[in-house]
Amino acid sequence: MSPPQDLTANTKYLIPSKGGPLTACNTPKPTILLKSKEVLIRVKAVAINPADCKMIDSGHRVTSWPLVPGLDGAGVVEAVGSEVDSFVVGNRVLATFVSGNRGASFQKFAVVDEKMVAKIPGHWPFEEAAGLGVCYMTAIIALGIGLQSNLPFLRQSLPTKIKPGFNRRPVLILGGSSALGAATIQLLRLAAPHCTILTTSSPKHHYHLTANLGATAAYDRNSRSLIEDIKLATEGYRGVDAIIDAVGAARTDGRVFNAFDPNGSKRYAQVWTGDEEIEVPDGVESVLFRGRDLSKLQGGDNAMASLQALLEKRRYKLPLPVRMVGYGLEGLERGLELMRKGVSGEKLVVGL
């Protein structure tokens, strides 16, 4: 059971300095005047992301300390700005948050821009919805910028100018059992229903990635015959046209580039992990994508509204099973430590 709640105070879980311990700090409940398009959320559950650990441990993209971490979460709308028309007090929502202070999710109350919020359908518990935002957003960028694929489910204010994409050409997604990989598989299936989607993961995750999320086939990432198996799944044994690297797999296993069709587009989309960009062989087009590239994507402002529609129509599934690791400070500490050791095939969630 979750601990009793004091609804008159805001508990922040912050890092005083780089590499420092997570500390609970009680402050008054936010009473500041919201900007016109802002939403105040009473956070009920948060998900742990690798980026949280990088910010805490190495100061990755941190401009000042102390830092309140947290990019993912879900809760209840507590207040709305004067021009917010999509949400009202009491709505159950998920959001993508901004680490730093007032906009981070590792606290009881957080302030988020309206366009970064989506309503949660009644059949989704907070614990499952808490981890949807970041992986969904990054997957959209992987497809829209990394592959230059059309995104028909994304509400766009202008006609698309994006290339036709990979509707029938084979695509390999490295790291299918990561949160980003799992989200990318099902969004690519929505965007390109006839695409041959191949992916890699530990064998124990293969059924979920194929039967539940829509991958055509999944392969053991450590198999000696990995490249041959991938090519066998493509027409004429020619190989794949594009690779989306959701985990930086090519950094330690360069043979994945042999899966390309020599006469194909050979487009390699790699997520930015904070490390140096992965070098690619001659003739391979490398595209680096990151979560903060949303503003570069046409229709990006409508991304969360589009997620809300997908959830309501039951077209988007939980990418990975949720693992609840506790509540409050103790739960956050445990979740961060587990993330540092490496997590695959599940999403770590903490109740607040």
From TrEMBL:
Keyword Oxidoreductase among UniProt keywords: yes
Keyword field: Oxidoreductase
SUPFAM superfamilies: GroES-like, NAD(P)-binding Rossmann-fold domains
Domain of life: Eukaryota
Molecular functions (GO terms): oxidoreductase activity, acting on NAD(P)H
Residue span, Enoyl reductase (ER) domain: 19-350
Annotated InterPro entries: ADH-like_N, ER, GroES-like_sf, NAD(P)-bd_dom_sf, Trans-enoyl_RdTase-like
CDD domains: enoyl_reductase_like
Protein family (similarity comment): Belongs to the zinc-containing alcohol dehydrogenase family.
Protein name: Alcohol dehydrogenase GroES-like domain protein
Upper classification of the organism: Eukaryota, Fungi, Dikarya, Ascomycota, Pezizomycotina
